[in-house]
Write a structure and sequence with these properties.
alpha/beta, 234 residues, 11 strands, two-stranded antiparallel ribbon, single chain, globular, nine-stranded mixed sheet, 5 helices
């Protein structure tokens, strides 16, 4: 059986494309990392998944993800909206999530990712709890996921009234919400349920030994399960 092809967008400053590619490969997809400069004139629908990985696109000039969002909106708006409308799985991680939100691709209403409520960069591990059955990336997850966060602007704030049904993942009370997001939201989906944006990095917990407390017997909740769910729908 032919593996589904996963298009991984690369913008200047992106630095998590390798980890995302590895996660997709382990999940059964064929990852293809492609710079935005090489995508003009290409049909994005030759791919079955679309991933916007983490990093510091354009050095976070003018705000995290803002210039990447501008480029997507001005040069690739038809391709982005067409891929989302096709129902194919779309994933934005950290900086990729910021680009989706600030580009107006996720969610349907107005929203932003503001500076963390604690007022500084957060780099630590969190636990993510899946909820609801709207999102194809999370509805089949059997339990919480453990993975790290590394961001300074991750506080998801929708314009009221926000839609609680768009929350696909929440931060567990222990160790808690690292940024102060509305409803403890860690991951947001669209109305169709094929797009997921999240600030934590599931691509950094593909193996149990990556867990910081693995030597003490902890290491469950692999982020790989999220990628497997997405690939299964491709």
């Amino acid at each position: 059986m032919t593996k589904p092809r996963a298009l991984i967008l690369y913008a200047p400053g992106t630095n998590r494309e390798g980890e995302a590619a590895r996660a997709l490969e382990l999940a059964g997809a064929e990852p293809v990392v492609t710079p935005l400069s090489e995508l003009r004139g290409q049909s994005w629908l030759d791919n079955q998944l679309l991933v916007l990985p983490g990093g510091f696109s354009y050095a976070d000039a003018l705000g995290a993800g803002r210039l990447w969002a501008l480029e997507l909106r001005q040069r690739f708006s038809d391709q982005m909206h067409g891929f989302i409308a096709s129902g194919r799985p779309v994933l934005g991680i950290c900086n990729g999530f910021q680009a989706l939100v600030k580009g107006g691709f996720l969610p349907q209403g107005q929203a932003t990712l503001a500076p963390n409520a604690v007022g500084h960069f957060q780099c630590r591990w969190v636990r993510l709890v899946p909820g609801g059955d709207r999102c194809l990336w999370t509805r089949a997850l059997k339990g919480p996921l453990d993975c790290p966060v590394a961001h300074g602007e991750g506080r998801f704030l929708p314009s009221p009234p926000g839609d609680p049904a768009c929350v696909a993942l929440t931060y567990a009370p222990d160790p808690g919400n690292p940024n102060g997001s509305w409803l403890d939201a860690a991951g947001i989906t669209n109305e169709q349920g094929n797009v997921l944006g999240l600030m934590p990095h599931p691509e950094n917990h593909l193996f149990s030994w990556q867990h910081p407390r693995h030597s003490r017997g902890e290491g469950g909740g692999l982020g790989l399960e999220l990628f497997r769910s997405g690939v299964a729908h491709a």
